[in-house]
Amino acid sequence: MSITENYLRSDSAAQGVEVIVLVNCLVQDAIHLDASDLHIEPWETSIAIRARVNGVLVEVVRLPLEFLEKISARFKVMSDLVTYQAGTPQDGTAAGGPELGGVQLRVSIFPTTRGEKIVVRLFNPRDRRFELDTLGFEKSTVYGLHKLLKRTSGLLLFTGPTGSGKTSTMYSALCHIIEREGSAVSISTVEDPVEFNLPMVSQTQIKPAADFTYAVALRSIMRQDPEVIMVGEIRDPETAAIAVQAGLTGHLVISTIHSGVSAGAFTRLINMEIEPFMLASSILGVMGLRLVRQNCPHCTQPYKPEPSQLKLVPEALLPAAQFRSGAGCEQCVNTGFKGRRPVSELLAVDEPFREAVLKKLPTRALEEIAIQQGMHTLWQNGLQRAVTGQTTLDEIIRVVAADMV
User: Fold this and answer.
1) Of 200, 194, 248, 184, which Cα lies nearest the Cα of 217?
2) CA distance 257 to 268
3) What single DSSP character describes residue 236?
4) Which stretches within 159-312 are classed as H helix?
5) Alpha-carbon distances, residue 133 vs 114, 141, 154, 178, 384 (angstroms)
């Protein structure tokens, strides 16, 4: 039974539900489940409370619709939003008190035809250690990243869908540089939003409404004499051009770009009208990221995947494969999974790959050349997670298979 359900059935709630206590219970439920987001959404006859656990929404409790306005008003007060405004989107942040374990909240309120939908992202500073070696990457990926982060100029890109671990990896990369260089390095970031305050790093949040965009901020940061620059996202041609130029003029630039696979980042930037010769000269590497749910250690057991799934596994891997799946228990909320692990592919740019970029070869051809030069793809690394029993083959197919086509 959830914390919220316990409260609603308690004697104190029988005398009248207090919205402050109710909201705290909802957030505590999300924290207890180790959720990344809490969804509070009005449905036809009730309010659905769901938590995103290991990347998947799990229903926590249903509440009467009559509580919606009070819950919305409470979150607005917590995050300094306009309480009487209900027809337009609002976003804000709130610092959780001792009763919420100091967890930071990023609140997004959006109007729907049934009332306001509230989504709360949770950040627990105590659970966040930005260390590359402890993020769970493959050994070859960590080794390759360490090599690239020793470079003093160039562009290092991360790609993957929302919630695939790009920001955590970039923060860890910055912390790795600080640990190695100490106070001898100057690091500046431009983000939207700043998710965590990093020690010894100058962090800036863009404000598009005030015309303080990525491009404007990045152009100004170049005059701040940094060795390392982190840009939250390259999303337009102007930002791309400045980032590439910064990488060519003695700065190590770390950023993200939306692309299905690592090799696709080059095609995306060429579509932004960045000249291929500049990309070939400036980009050090591109890292593709996904997060897959890992089997619950308390209830994992051997299983045999479906024959149609086994056809996707190379025959050479089958004799030694140890497929495992979680049966479901209290520890994993009967999902069979507990926690997530990254699956990555690191494309380190070398001379043969640069020549291919200069020829404007399509993404598939670029990917083939990267594989020939030793890159392990998302699919290959994902299969390795499955055949060693860290996760299920079904999970790898769900998360990664679309990128193998």
Assistant:
1) 194
2) 8
3) S
4) 166-181, 214-221, 237-248, 264-271, 276-282, 307-310
5) 46, 10, 23, 15, 19
pLDDT tens per residue across all 405 residues of the chain: 899 999 999 988 888 999 999 999 999 999 999 999 999 999 999 999 999 999 999 999 999 999 999 999 999 999 999 998 888 999 999 988 888 888 999 999 999 999 999 999 998 876 667 999 999 999 999 999 999 999 999 999 999 998 899 999 999 999 999 999 999 999 999 999 888 889 999 999 999 889 999 999 999 999 999 999 999 999 999 999 999 999 999 999 999 999 889 999 999 999 999 999 999 999 999 999 999 999 999 999 999 999 999 999 999 999 999 999 999 998 898 999 999 999 999 999 999 999 999 999 999 999 999 999 999 999 999 999 999 999 999 999 999 976 554
Q: Which one-letter amino acid corresponds to residue 89?
A: P
Q: Is the dihedral of CA 370, 371, 375, 380 positive or negative?
A: positive
* pTM, 2 dp: 0.89
What element of type H or E holds 21? helix 19-32
The number of C-alpha atoms within 13 Å of 33 and in the hemisphere containing its C-beta is 32
> Tokens 């996760």 label which residue?
391
Tokens encoding 379: 């699919």
How many Å apart are CA 216 and CA 186, to the nearest integer? 20
CB 403 within 8 A of CB 259: no
Calpha distance 42→12 (Å, rounded): 25
Using alpha carbons, select from 77, 99, 126 the residue that is nearest to residue 27. Answer: 99
